[in-house]
Request: fold
Amino acid sequence: MNPADMPADVSAAAQTEDLLAAVRAIAQGPLAARAQAIDEGAYPIDLMRELAQMGAMSAHIDQPGRPGNYVTAILAMAEVGKVCGASSFLMWQQAVSALYLYGSENPAMNGERLQRHLAGEIMGATGMSNPMKGFAGIEKILLNATPVEGGYLINGTLPWVSNLAPDHSLGTVATVNGKGPGSEIMFMLPCSAPGVTLKHCPKFSGMEGTATFAVQCKDVFIGPNELLADPCLPYIKRIRGAFLLLQCGIAAGIIQGAIDSMWKVEDQLGHVNQFLDDRPDQLQAELDDLVGTVAQLCETPYDPSDAFYLDVVNARLAGGELCLRAANAALMHQGARGYLMCSDVQRRVREAQFVAIVTPAIKHLRKQAADLCAETLPA
Reply:
C-alpha cells in the first residue's frame, strides 16, 4: 500500500515507529559507545545534529503533511535517555527551542528560521532557568533590557545555560528598565552577537558534555527579528505546559534505563534482591502509569489554564521523584558492580539527581503546585 493511501492514524503510527527505530539505532550504537565520555565532558554535537535531521527533536511541531505529536517527541528523548541522560537533556534543549520559535507570533521566528531549526541546520538552547525561578518568586530575573531606538540593549549574566556553542542561540527573558512586572520581554539571544561572552562553569559531578556555560551580556542589541514576545507573560502561559511535558522524556528514559539494569542482574541476584523495597516490575508499573498520564496531557499541550498546568506540574514532579527512586534502586540491585565509576548505573544516579534539581527542581515544582492550589481554594 502506498503510504499516501493509508489511513492517517495508521500512517502516523508507522512514521512514529520508523522514527523511534532510527533513534534507537543511534542510542544503542554510537551513543552508547560514547556515553561515559559524554558524562566526562565530550559534547556530542555530531549526534545531536544527526538526531535533529531525522526529526527526533521536532516531532512535536506541526509540519506540512504531519501534525505535531508530543508523545512521539517524548518517546524519542526517552530512547536516548535510557542510554545517556545528558544527550536526552540536549535533545530537550533543541526541542524546546523549536517550541519557542513555533509558539511566537513574530513572523521572523516561525517562518524560515523555524524550518531551518527543525531541519537541524541551526541549534538552540533555553536560558529559562533563572526567568522561571524569577516568575515563581524564588529569585530575581538577572537580565535587564533598556529600550533604545529599534530595540533593546541587554545586560546581565545567566549562570547556567546548556547546549551552547558560538553559532547557537538561546531563548530567555529580561525585565524592561523603567517598567513594572508584566512588561518582561522574551527573545532569542545569538551567542555570536557583539557583547555576548560564554564563560566556562565550575566542573559538575556529571553530565559535563552538555556544553553548559555562563552567558554574560554587555549592551547586547536585540532588534524586532529576535523578539519572541513583548510582553512575554501571555506567550509563556501558552507554552509552559508543553515546556514541562517535553522534560518528562528525559525522566522517562533514565527511569527505564534504571529498570533495565535491574533486570540484567535478576538471574544472578534475584534471590537476595527480592528483599529490596523497589523492584523492577513495581517501578515499571509506576512508569507505565506516568507515561500514560503524560500522553493524556499531550492531547492539549497548549492549554493555558491553571488547572491543566497543575496537572502537568504534578506529572513532571512525579517523574523527578520516580527518577531518584529508580536510579537508587538500580544501584541497590547491582551492588558493588553498580558502584564502579565506569558503571552506567553509577552514572544514572547522577543523571537522576540532575533531573531532580534542574529547573524546575522538585522543590520548585512543589512550590508551584502549592501556589496554584492556593489560587483556586478559598482562604
About this structure: Residues 35 and 84 are 6 Å apart (CA to CA).
